[in-house]
């Protein structure tokens, strides 16, 4: 079954999301503090479940994040999302996560570090000025 591409436009309180199954690249970029985090993240969680299920053992997935601010309820949903990738990695799938942080945003770097501590998949934190 061919997965469809998932694209969600950013809003003031939600990040832009672009999941491209053809190239196995998933981007999430922007601030995340929606009124109802679960409502925003639920379609992503469902998509990721389907995607990981059909992912071939020889395919490499790159997950790229740029999240300058994530509120507490978003953090919980986000952890659920990343745990799905972590479990897939543990079962032998090739998944790499790169989190781009602004060098002058310490809270973003701390947030990325905290996620990294809880996960076993390859996880790079890259300090990079906004492009």
Account of the protein in words:
It is a single chain. With 131 residues, the chain is α/β, with parallel strands linked by helices. 37% of the residues lie in helices and 25% in strands. The protein contains three helices and six strands, in the order E-E-E-H-E-H-E-H-E. It has a six-stranded mixed beta sheet, covered by helices on one side. Strand 5, helix 3 (106-117) and strand 6 form a beta-alpha-beta unit. Helix 1 (37-54) packs parallel to helix 2. The longest helix is centred in the middle third of the chain and has 19 residues, at 72-90. The radius of gyration is 14 Å and the shape is globular. The N and C termini lie far apart (36 Å). The model has no long low-confidence stretch (mean pLDDT 95).
Q: Identify the overall geometry.
A: globular
Question: Could you spell the SSE succession in H and E letters?
Answer: EEEHEHEHE
- Structural class given helices, strands, pairing? alpha/beta
Helical residue percent band:
25-40%
Average of the residue pLDDT scores: 95
Tally of DSSP helical segments: 3
> Number of DSSP strands?
6
Cα distance spanning the termini: 36 Å
Uncertain residue segments = none
Q: Sheet with the most strands? A: 6 strands, mixed
List the topology elements.
Layout: E1 6-8, E2 16-20, E3 25-29, H1 37-54, E4 60-66, H2 72-90, E5 94-101, H3 106-117, E6 123-127
Parallel strand pairs: 3-4, 4-5, 5-6
Antiparallel strand pairs: 1-2, 2-3
Short characterization:
By secondary structure, this protein is α/β, with parallel strands linked by helices. The chain has 3 helices and 6 strands, in the order E-E-E-H-E-H-E-H-E.
């Amino acid at each position: 079954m061919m997965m469809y591409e998932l694209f969600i436009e950013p809003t003031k309180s939600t990040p832009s999301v672009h999941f491209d199954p053809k190239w196995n690249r998933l981007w999430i970029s922007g601030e995340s503090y929606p009124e109802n985090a679960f409502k925003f993240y639920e379609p992503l969680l469902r998509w990721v479940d389907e995607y990981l299920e059909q992912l071939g053992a020889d395919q490499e997935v790159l997950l790229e994040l740029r999240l300058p601010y994530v509120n507490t309820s978003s953090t919980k949903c986000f952890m659920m999302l990343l745990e799905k990738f972590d479990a897939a990695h543990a079962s032998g799938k090739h998944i790499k996560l790169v989190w781009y942080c602004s060098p002058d945003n310490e809270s973003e770097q701390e947030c990325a570090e905290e996620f990294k501590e809880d996960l076993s998949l390859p996880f790079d934190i890259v300090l990079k000025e906004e492009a």
